[in-house]
């Protein structure tokens, strides 16, 4: 009996969370079905921006999705965000279906504007596309103007910018240097 009551309350909580999310974000956040997120999942949407979420998205601890400055962030179905993932969209980020993100993944579709005279207000905008079936390893950073083809794997700790063909394994250079500190 206790288990049934617990399931009923969990379902009621999900329905209330869905209704609250639709009221709070009006047309800035759209999602299919019921909306489930952890309390520590942070969703930030500025006035002219949009986030579109598919079905069955999982959020582990401390995930942050942010769309600002007119950006459009689209996330497909069956996407899993592991702990401490950060996605910041100022122009366009499109994540396909069945994508897995390891812990600590960061995605940015923009850079600060800078030169030898310093950093200036504003951003260089680009886009990020991650096609269906990709696995993005732990602590990967994905930068603007990146397109990752379907069913690709990005190795842990890699910084990605540019085009990764479909069905590829991409890894950054990992050279360890060991030097004695005592004689």
Describe the structure in brief.
The longest helix is centred in the first third of the chain and has 24 residues, at 2-25.
Pick out its properties.
183 residues, mainly beta, UDP N-Acetylglucosamine Acyltransferase, domain 1, 7-stranded parallel sheet, 6-stranded parallel sheet, 21 strands, 38% strand, globular
Total beta strands: 21
Considering the protein shown, what is the CATH homologous superfamily? Hexapeptide repeat proteins
Query: Mean pLDDT across all residues, rounded?
Result: 86
The assigned CATH architecture is: 3 Solenoid
Distance between the amino and carboxyl termini: 69 Å
SSE topology string:
HEEEEEEEEEEEEEEEEEEEEE
Order of neighbouring strands in the sheet with most strands: 1-3-6-9-14-17-20
- Main pleated-sheet profile: 7 strands, parallel
Number of helices: 1
CA-atom Rg in angstroms: 19 Å
CATH class: Mainly Beta
The geometry reads as globular
Quote the CATH topology. Answer: UDP N-Acetylglucosamine Acyltransferase, domain 1
